[in-house]
Amino acid sequence: MHRIDVPSATADHQFTEGSPAGGVPATTVSAAWLNDVQEELINILAAADVAPVKGEQNQVLQALQALIAAGQQSNAGQVAWFAVKTPPAGYLKCNGLTIGKPGSGATAREHNDVFALYVALWNDWSNDVLAIQTSGGAPTGRGPSAQADWDALKRLPLPEIRGEGIRAWDDGRGVDAGRQFGSWQGGQIESHGHSASSGGSGSHSHSGTAAEAGSHNHLEGHSLKADIVAQYGVGGTAASGSERTGTNQAGQAYTSTGGLHSHSLTINSAGDHSHTVGVGNTGGNETRMRNIALSAFIRYL
After folding, report:
1. Domain locations in the chain?
2. What SS3 class is residue 157?
3. What's the pTM?
4. How far apart are the C-alpha atoms of 171 and 124, rounded to whole Å?
5. 83 contacts: CB under 8 Å, gap ≥ 6
6. What is the pLDDT of residues 114-137, one digit of tens each?
């Protein structure tokens, strides 16, 4: 790169429109100076892996953004909560779609400015959690490096955080042991028991009644009506001229009708006791605290 140095430039190497009245010529742009400017700009694009395209007028800006992002990878990959639905500049939705180089067919962003995020995710997320894809969208294995997969036009998914809560990675502490970084974990309720009881009824008895027996006679201790005795073909004599008691010809004692009556019934105490209690299920399809739904966006610049 050099300052304009043609004879028509000013003494301090500046451009001038000249002055016809004063006899000062306008500065002539030399091919050497234009080539220097062109190659300086091309080198910026090349450093960011941006291919120059005729007619596009923001490629230097894209390249500078990508280079800045590459130098600030601590910001690339940062997830932030927003109270808006559309991600601001430099952020993408955490929705599981893919990022990659132009030509990769990435579904979230296909651009050189996502390279820093691509590298960050490639390095820290295993292929079991974020399975890299071919340019056609088929899951595939990872190559020797993020740069190699980037150049091979492989897509890399973004984390899927929609509808999920966040838990700090255990990182060897042992509270949530065995977790892969970035892995998903289903809901769970810690094993526990519930106590339940019913009030004791105390020592008590139950009242009861027997059905009425109706009018009847007794034979040998059971009621026997006179007409039944006659039905057996045996006669009987009543003591003292009464039909209440007597003997039949077989020598069996009988009594006359006992009249309409009932018998008392006593049920013994069951003692102090309790009853089995069943506890039914309650609740919905997940365990959750009160919450508010916001957008989760990931930074790529």
Report:
1. 79-164
2. strand
3. 0.55
4. 13
5. 294, 295
6. 999 999 999 999 999 999 999 999
